[in-house]
Amino acid sequence: MFVRSRRPARVLGAAALIVTGVIAMAGCAGTAPSAAESAIPSTDGFPVTIDSALGQTAIDAKPERVATWGWSAQDAVLALGVVPVAMPAFPYGGVDGVLPWDKDAIDDLGGQTPQLLSGGDTSTPNVEEFVQAKPDVILAPYSGLTQEQFDELSKIAPVVAYPDKPWATSWQDQTKIVGQALGLSDDAEALISRTNDEITTLAGKYPVLEGKTFVYGANNEPETFNVFRENDPRVQLLTQLGMTVAPSVEANVPASDASRYFYKVSFENLGALSSDVLVAYFGTQDAADTFVGDPLVAAMPQVKDGRFAPIVGESFVMASSAPTALSIPWMLDRYVPQLAAVAARVG
Tag placement on the chain: N or C end, fewer CB within 10 Å? Predict the structure, then answer.
C-alpha cells in the first residue's frame, strides 16, 4: 500500500536495490564533479538513439552530468538513483525552489541540491544557465520545448524531448525515456511495474471508484474553467484508479483546441460538463472556497450534491498535476480516500 511519509522510502529503497554500483551525486552549479561523484550505473549499451517530436537524439556515452527541463523529468532521474546537476526551480509547490519529494530523494541519495534553472514550467529556457551546468544530456520528456529551443539547447548537449505532444507524456513513458537515456531501461521498467502494482492495490481498496465518470479541471482565470482531456497525465492517473473520463469532456472540445491537452469553458457553460465526480485543483483553500462560492459553480449538480473532490495546496497540486514514481506515493494515499468518499455519494 502507499505509505504517506516525509520521505518516499518505498520508491527510493526499491530503486537502491535495483541500481547497483555507485550513485552520481551532483555538485553545486557550475562546479566540476568532486571526488565523491561517480559514473551513473548503466545496464544499457551506448550509443543510444531516442526519437522525439522535435528530432532524433544520439547519446554516445552514458551521461555523468544530467540536466532536466519541464515539470517532472527530475523525479524520474532521482527515482532511478541519480541526482541531476541541474533541474528547474519550482517556486509553486516547492521550498526554496525544490519540491518536497525531490528534496527527500536528494537527501536519501546523499546528494547536493542541483543548480536550479529559472522558468522551468512554460517559460523560455535560459541558455546561459545550461551552459553553466555543463550537462552531458538534457532530459525534457514532459515539457513545452519549441523546435527553436530544442535546437538551441542541442548545441550544449543532446536533448531528449517529448515523443508526441508538449505536456502530454505519461509518467510511465517519461520514466522509460529517462531510463533509456541514462542506460537504466531495466531499472525503469521495474520501477514502472512496481508503481503500477501499488496503484492497482490502492484502487482495489476503494472499489467505489470503479467506473465513476469524472471531469478534471482548474480555475486559473476569472470566470473560466480549464478542462483537462484524457491524454493529460493527471487525468490518466485517475483512470488508473478505475475511474472513467466523462463523455462530456470530449463532447465539448472546441474545434480550435482539438490538438491541445485542455480547453477552456466559461462559467456560463459549466452545466455542459456532466459527470459523476468533479475534480479541480487549487493552490489554497481560499481559492477553492471562492470557486464554489460563485453562483454558476454552486449550481453544478456535482457541487450541489457533494460530488466535488478538490485538490488543495501547492505541493499537493504539483504532485497530482505531474504524477511520477516519486510524487504518486507522496500524495495518492491522502487523496484517494477523499476521492472515494465523494464517489460514494454518486446516486
Answer: C
